[in-house]
Amino acid sequence: MRIRTFLWLLNLGFLVGCAGTFKYYDPNLPHHGKTGFLNNYDNSPKPSVMKWYWQRWTTDFPKEDPAGAPEVPVNLDTLKNPRRLSLTWLGHSSVLIQMDGMNVLTDPVFSERVSPVSFAGPKRYGNQPLAVNQLPPIDVVVVSHGHYDHLDLNSLRAIFELNEGRTRFLVPLGDKALLESEGIRNVQEMDWWENVLIGKLKVTFTPAQHWSARSLFDRNETLWGGWMISGPSRQVLYTGDTGYSKDFQDIYQRLGAVDVALIPIGAYSPRWFMKQQHVDTDEAVQIHQDLHAKVSLPVHWGTFKLSDELMTEPPEKLRESLQKAKLPLSVFPVMKRGETFQFEDAVVNRGFKNESVQN
Questions:
Q1: By the 8 A CB rule, do 71 and 91 touch?
Q2: Which terminus of the chain, N or C, has fewer Cβ atoms within 10 Å?
Q3: Which domains does the chain have, with CATH numbers?
Q4: Is 123 helix (H, G, I), strand (E, B) or coil?
Q5: Mean pLDDT score, 301-320
Q6: Among 157, 166, 111, 179, CA closest to 136
Q7: Nearest Cα to Cα of residue 75 among 302, 341, 324
Q8: What is the dihedral of CA 102, 231, 192, 48, to 10 degrees?
């Protein structure tokens, strides 16, 4: 049965192709390639996913995990009355950022599975620490890329409906039509380094080392990246999914140091397959240093089984990586699902100009 499934997937893989010139192709923008979007620094051929599937199906993989990340109940009173920069980890890459009177949600996924279908695919470990209807009013949702564990249409539609259309949805170039096809309005798609002002916040779409697809036939037809959220007193970067690249040195050079960085630490094994698209913990610590972050918070672990390492391994490896880098554990604290981190450093007035991208 496993061999038949493998051969079926392999045959489908041969069907992938595209005709004509990519609609976003622009010779003046190096990441707008002739056949799809490109990374800034590494566009070498991707390792074979079929080889990885074959390795897993013919050995003891995938490993079974007894549990994912530890959980704590969300403090709803803190969400209603945040007194300072607060970040609540809701699992995987979903983080509620509360700063300067605004509520920003990164890659909201409230579904039980991250998959094109509801009955198969990676299933959530543990509980969702907060229901959609328990969220405070959401001003902005940022989506890093189109993979199902980051762009969950059911969750986005629920947020849109609960907030009666007031939420702004910021997505990578190419994803706007998908959201609008689900009845979600107030959507703006952005290219790397574009920014928009929303209330007191400036939100900038930043590069990352990754890729995109929602089917076998749309590889890299939509962009991917991270989001810098800059307020009068604080600056937070969500890197999105990424392999390690010079992009993070570039972000620091162009946008300055960050107070808090949200950096993925999971889905890194096996390295021969994952290295181009997902950092390991050594590389996550290097990104923390590249960004000159005061504090980094780990995301993208302990919620969905997407790779071969044990679900509870990334925090252990992160501690080892911090020790190797001679950094205190306090600069990269591991949170429990549902936990709120409150940033209490001194206020710094950033004073940015209005350079917003118009709808």
A1: no
A2: N
A3: 76-337 (3.60.15.10)
A4: strand
A5: 96
A6: 166
A7: 341
A8: -70
